[in-house]
Amino acid sequence: MALVAVLASLDALRRGSKPAPALPGETTRLAGGLLPEPSALSGELVFTSLAGCRPQAVSLATLTLLPRGPSLDCELWVPPRGDLAAVSLAPALGFRGSQVALLRLGAAPEVVRLVGVVRGEPSWSDDGERLAWCTAESDTVVLTVETGARASVDGCRPSIAPDGSVLTRPASFLAPTLLQDGEVLLDESDLARAFPADSEGPLDLVGYDLRADGLLAVVAVRFESGRRPRRLLQLWRAGTLERAILLPELTLPAGSGRLGERVEFDPAGRELAVSYSGPGKQMVLVDLESGRIALEPVSQHGFAWSPDGRWFALSTGEEVRVLGPERRDPVYVLPVGAAAIAWR
User: Fold this and answer.
1) Rounded distance, CA 303 to CA 340, Å?
2) CA atoms in the 13 A half-sphere facing the CB of 193
């Protein structure tokens, strides 16, 4: 009852009215846009609607919209597997973070458990059994969902790796150090090796992700006097630097974050997304075999690959564009106004 009261109060405060009544458990077929034939795509696209920030899913096999969940905030984090997602209950609480809860996905999405105040982006394990987030005290908590057990790890900006370890970085403004389960994995001298020998200036580790086969991708930036920051995508394996790729320097208004705060391998491990954190900001796709930019900088409200990595979905806010393997013009366009998306 306490949870229901909290949600009702937050929703009423955000909307300035009483919470909207629950919708009947009916499905609606998509119409308009450039739709695929039924069964041309598989799985579900989970998203939050721009109108009311309601969690919802569309079955791509049948092109039907499933019933919407309660009106919350527009942030949504969904693991590849499992029946839970993490959602923001209210707008950001300044530097403290956002109030986050667990949402049960399915025919009638519902909030089932409060998590607490989360700073930045939380991270799910691939199986959906663990959730990690940075706290207001600048350390990381790892929640085992089934048991409710919590463990603490040094650092912030957590990323749960396929091997179960937790990647973080120190919570300071400039932190040229990558931690794995609280132990130093890469330090400033390691990150500096990818930059030209005559390059000087403060270093920062922005974002990172680990592939199942052990390939580690990190985005590091060097602030050099008299020139724009130099941002590199570095690819590491077993402590060895395999490649460094210069990233475009995209600019946003002050306070909008930095390119590379979100780094994510596609499910097949052939591409890497590098983006700002949050909706309405730019991102690029990097082809890891050639080292070239596969998708030029584009603004987005959310992106996701199909489970096999073949298709790439990108929300413009007004519609969801589905790109084919060439990553050029959209093959399909879904008439869905989405603020965040995940493909399962």
Assistant:
1) 7
2) 13
